[in-house]
């Protein structure tokens, strides 16, 4: 039951199918095997077949189905990457769905991992954004005593790896959120920053919806009576549940911070607009004085106050300057300008 990892490299972009197919006994990897021999190896006592597939077609899934006698509904689900996290039992086999997540170009991209687990075999099917399970195989092969537990330990290792890979996504968002917080009270709030805050909060909601249902999946796996799950493995699935709850707490905390930052950004923008409005109103009031006086004296009337007075023009200019100066001082004292 050692894990074969030399075959577990990620397929090149656009290439789908078999990533790894190996058989293990006593925690040791024996050999790589073709799919057509997988069923025979899995029925040998003390042997476990571990097959990794990446976005396989129907023909390949049919081969796997024929080797392990997988249920038709499970094959249909594994062909389509639009399943919610769940665990379903079909006779002596289980079908488990987990959602995966990665940060790609600043957004969270989601994928799915479908797992067929039964006596003597584990088949993982990856769709969409997902990290290769090469590190899982390497860790399992490095611990033959644990890998000798069989298919339930492989199932635990994959689920634990999926959950652990939520944390790098959360950490990247947390770093970006801290940067946004540092500049949230700046004098200039660009529109794209507000849009980014909204995007991050929405992505975190989707991540929560992908991760939290795994708690129920692990709770089912902790219950006795499931095929291929030994009672001694139940604490390990409970540990995965604890990790998911920590992920959930981190997500909720970040969503609260983002909500506060979003509201603060909006309030800061409103405050800036109010400040600009005050300044415009203050200068408009100051300019209204000379505009009004000039409008009066600009009318075509011969009889106007002080029109023929020698000091009339300097007097009017002085009055305008005094009133404007007084208004400027009043607005300045109220910090409107």
3D architecture notes:
This protein is α+β, with helices and mostly antiparallel strands and 337 residues long. The protein contains eleven helices and seven strands. It has a seven-stranded mixed β-sheet, with helices on both faces. Mean pLDDT is 81; it is low at 1-15.
Going across the major beta sheet, what is the strand order? 2-1-3-7-6-5-4
> Would you identify the regions where 5 or more consecutive residues have pLDDT less than 50?
1-15
Q: What is the total tally of β strands? A: 7
How does CATH name the architecture of the largest domain? Answer: 2-Layer Sandwich
Under CATH at level 1, the class of the largest domain stands as Alpha Beta
The total count of helices amounts to 11
What is the mean predicted local confidence, pLDDT? 81
Radius of gyration, in Å, reads 35 Å
Q: What characteristic shape results from the CA principal axes?
A: rod-shaped
- Biggest beta sheet summary: 7 strands, mixed
The CATH topology of the largest domain comes to: Beta Polymerase, domain 2
* Sequence of secondary-structure elements: EEHEHHEEEEHHHHHHHH
Helix content: 40-55%
Query: How far apart, in Å, are the first and last alpha carbons?
Result: 77 Å
Per CATH, the superfamily of the largest domain is CorA soluble domain-like
Q: What portion of the residues fall into strands of 2 or more residues?
A: 15-25%
Number of domains: 2
> From the helix content, strand content and strand pairing, which structural class follows?
alpha+beta
């Amino acid at each position: 039951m050692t894990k074969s990892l030399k075959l577990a490299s990620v397929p090149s972009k656009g290439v789908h199918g078999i990533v790894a197919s190996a058989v293990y006994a006593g925690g040791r990897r024996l050999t790589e095997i073709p799919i057509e021999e997988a069923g025979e190896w899995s029925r040998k006592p003390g042997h476990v077949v571990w097959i990794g597939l990446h976005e396989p077609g129907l023909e390949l899934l049919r081969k796997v189905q024929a080797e392990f006698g997988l249920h038709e509904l499970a094959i249909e689900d594994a062909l389509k990457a639009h399943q919610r996290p769940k665990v379903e039992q079909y006779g002596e086999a289980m079908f488990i769905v987990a959602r995966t997540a990665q940060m790609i170009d600043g957004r969270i991209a989601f994928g799915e991992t479908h797992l067929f687990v039964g006596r003597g075999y584990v088949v993982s099917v990856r769709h969409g954004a997902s990290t290769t399970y090469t590190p899982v195989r390497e860790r399992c092969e490095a611990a033959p005593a644990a890998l000798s537990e069989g298919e339930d330990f492989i199932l635990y290792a994959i689920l634990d790896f999926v959950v652990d890979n939520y944390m790098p996504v959360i950490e990247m968002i947390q770093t970006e959120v801290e940067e946004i917080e540092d500049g949230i009270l700046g004098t200039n709030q660009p529109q794209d920053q507000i849009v980014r805050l909204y995007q991050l909060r929405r992505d975190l909601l989707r991540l929560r919806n992908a991760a939290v249902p795994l708690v129920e999946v692990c709770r089912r796996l902790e219950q006795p009576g499931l095929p291929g799950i030994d009672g001694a493995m139940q604490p390990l699935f409970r540990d995965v549940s604890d990790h998911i709850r920590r992920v959930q707490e981190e997500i909720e905390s970040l969503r609260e911070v983002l909500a506060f930052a979003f509201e603060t950004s909006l309030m800061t923008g409103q405050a800036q607009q109010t400040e600009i409005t005050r300044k415009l109103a203050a200068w408009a009031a100051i300019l209204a004085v000379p505009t009004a006086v000039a409008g009066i004296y600009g009318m075509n009337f011969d009889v106007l106050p002080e029109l023929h007075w020698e000091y009339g023009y300097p007097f009017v200019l002085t009055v305008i300057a005094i009133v404007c100066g007084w208004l400027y001082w009043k607005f300045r004292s109220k910090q409107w300008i």
